[in-house]
């Protein structure tokens, strides 16, 4: 192994790979140290894996929903406003994962290569062995995660072949060849699966203390490790690090992408594979009945959030960011103007129309009992949980929000720069007990999930319907129908009529597909899924974003923003800067 590389060399390699700016590192030359010098400095060595965690794309909200039919931005300088209006390009890509993910993978590769040489303790080589295993397992799992995001953002067709990205499975140094072609999508998926298997071999399912010696893995018993040794490394103090369960979830996410229409022609992954991967996790979570009863309002379950501690997750959340301290930034961006917010994300009429009536029927169905003159009455309860519409209440004092043109407040349709452009504001994700009044501002704790269990249940429903039909159970004993019924029951849908609409489509795979996709749209709205879902499904990207203009109690649906996407934009581009540096790279068709 070329472990004699020094840290300056590592940074220079990263500059070649990801920035091309040599002068970035001039001031740091005095800090040059050999990698070997980190072997007795565990915090310095662990900085490599920490860098991987810091680069996880879902560490913050992207709100790329504003470039879909679900939402628009009220700020014309917003990057997703520009993406949706035809300015998405290989040299203007706010969805770029190339630079960030490849930099993370370089750090992770060095950690994998050097972990066995690091002294994580000063007194116990056996515990060093356990720490090395855990950190390598984390690095393999994180490398799979970054590969998933790279494939999602940059995988695509080029000259009739479905390509992924360049596979980086060992550290690059100054003698490495950088000008190499992209691997195929299938090769990238197989690398991802291999990394997940490595993570599962090295990591526990969850980080919890074991109470007895006989619960310790056999390989550590054979080495003579004690229960205390095991708990020191793999116990509850490590919660929120990447675990075996999280690696399984990443595999399920990637498999669904690979089995989807836009990618299936270049992948051997099937919907049955995706269903099996998600089904494993659901079975570990107690099956269909394991769906968290309060999972619908995970972001505003105040008592639950305020009492989280010790790395514990709410039942709805598989993996999350650390809580941090009380904050109000999210509300400041998205609260309506009368609540001292900037109303940034405006849900569309398109999305509002996707919520069924409370009896479970789509609003355009003759049995829905939908009333166009009273459009928010008798609707899916998720509508009022997720979206502020005319007459909703919001903020710490439950103030009524009037979005009508003649309502007399700045919450009204297009009243001022920070008013709604669609007649709606986002409610989901926000804590209504945040007060933004300048005389009494207060923040609150926010839980930010990286992976929610509801996503895993929806992965299973989508994949199982395609693999086995609506009622087929595969190897896990539950069906797509079972999952969707549980999700809709939790939402309060069809409770008075046995969810008659679901019952009417349970024998029709095509109708169930549309229902599952709609449930995914509603349950995961504003969480950064819709942009990618429309593309992997090969759905229409150019449906205009619509809003509602209310005046004198009359409702008028209006076009708010046309969506300008070419057919090739079901795939994202390879960054132009990379193509200019390396002629072995091929761009995705159309870019």
From TrEMBL:
Residue ranges constituting the SusD-like N-terminal domain according to the UniProt record: 62-211
Cross-referenced Pfam families, in alphabetical order? SusD-like_3 (PF14322), SusD_RagB (PF07980)
Provide this UniProt record's keywords sorted from A to Z: Cell outer membrane, Membrane, Signal
Compartments, record wording? Cell outer membrane
Q: Any keyword Magnesium?
A: no
Signal peptide residue numbers: 1-21
UniProt-recorded name of the protein: RagB/SusD family nutrient uptake outer membrane protein
**Taxonomy of the source species:** Bacteria, Pseudomonadati, Bacteroidota, Cytophagia, Cytophagales
């Amino acid at each position: 192994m070329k472990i004699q590389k020094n840290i300056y060399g590592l940074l220079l390699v990263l500059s070649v790979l990801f920035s091309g700016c040599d002068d970035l590192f001039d001031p740091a030359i005095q800090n040059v140290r050999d990698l070997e010098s980190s072997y007795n400095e565990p915090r310095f060595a662990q900085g490599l894996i920490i860098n991987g965690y810091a680069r996880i794309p879902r560490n913050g909200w992207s709100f790329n929903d504003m470039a879909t039919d679900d939402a628009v931005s009220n700020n014309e300088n917003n990057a997703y406003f520009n993406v949706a209006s035809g300015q998405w390009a290989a040299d203007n890509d706010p969805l770029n994962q190339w630079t960030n993910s490849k930099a993370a993978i370089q750090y992770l590769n060095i950690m994998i290569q050097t972990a066995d040489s690091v002294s994580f303790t000063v007194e116990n080589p056996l515990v060093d062995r356990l720490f090395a295993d855990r950190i390598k397992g984390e690095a393999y799992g994180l490398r799979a995660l970054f590969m998933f995001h790279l494939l999602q953002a940059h995988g695509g067709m080029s000259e009739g072949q479905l390509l992924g990205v360049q596979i980086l499975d060992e550290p690059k140094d100054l003698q490495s060849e950088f000008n190499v072609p992209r691997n195929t999508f299938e090769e990238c998926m197989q690398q991802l699966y291999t990394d997940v298997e490595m993570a599962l071999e090295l990591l526990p399912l969850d980080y919890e203390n074991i109470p007895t010696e006989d619960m310790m893995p056999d390989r550590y018993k054979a080495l003579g490790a004690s229960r205390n040794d095991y708990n020191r490394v793999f116990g509850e103090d490590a919660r929120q690090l990447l675990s075996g369960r999280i690696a399984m979830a990443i595999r399920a996410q990637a498999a669904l992408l690979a089995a989807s229409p836009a990618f299936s022609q270049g992948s051997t992954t099937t919907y049955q594979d995706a269903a099996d991967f998600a089904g494993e996790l659901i079975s570990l979570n107690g099956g269909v009945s394991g769906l968290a009863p309060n999972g619908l309002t995970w972001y505003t379950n105040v008592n639950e959030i305020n009492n989280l501690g010790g790395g514990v997750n709410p039942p709805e959340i598989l993996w999350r960011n650390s809580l941090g301290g009380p904050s109000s930034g999210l509300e400041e961006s998205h609260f309506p103007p009368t609540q001292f917010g900037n109303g940034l994300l405006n849900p569309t009429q398109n999305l509002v129309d996707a919520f069924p009536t409370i009896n479970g029927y789509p609003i355009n169905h003759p049995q829905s009992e939908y009333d166009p003159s009273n459009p928010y009455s008798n609707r899916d309860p998720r509508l009022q949980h997720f979206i502020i519409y005319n007459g909703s209440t919001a903020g710490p004092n439950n103030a009524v929000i009037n979005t009508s043109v003649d309502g007399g407040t700045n919450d009204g349709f297009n009243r001022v720069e920070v008013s709604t452009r669609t007649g709606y504001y986002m409610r989901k994700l926000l804590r209504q007990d945040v007060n933004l009044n300048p005389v009494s501002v207060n923040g609150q704790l926010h839980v930010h999930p990286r992976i929610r269990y509801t996503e895993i249940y929806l992965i299973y429903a989508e994949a199982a319907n395609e693999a086995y039909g609506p009622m087929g159970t595969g190897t896990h004993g539950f069906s797509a129908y079972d999952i969707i019924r549980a999700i809709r029951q939790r939402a309060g849908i069809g409770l008075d009529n046995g969810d008659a609409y679901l019952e009417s489509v349970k024998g029709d795979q095509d109708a169930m597909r549309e229902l599952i996709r709609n449930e995914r749209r509603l349950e995961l709205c504003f969480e950064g899924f819709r942009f990618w879902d429309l593309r992997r499904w090969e759905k229409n990207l150019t449906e205009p974003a619509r809003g509602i203009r209310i005046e004198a109690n009359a409702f008028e649906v209006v076009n708010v923003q046309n969506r300008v996407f070419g057919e090739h934009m079901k795939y994202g581009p390879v960054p132009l800067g990379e193509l200019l540096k390396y002629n072995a790279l091929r761009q995705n068709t159309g870019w």
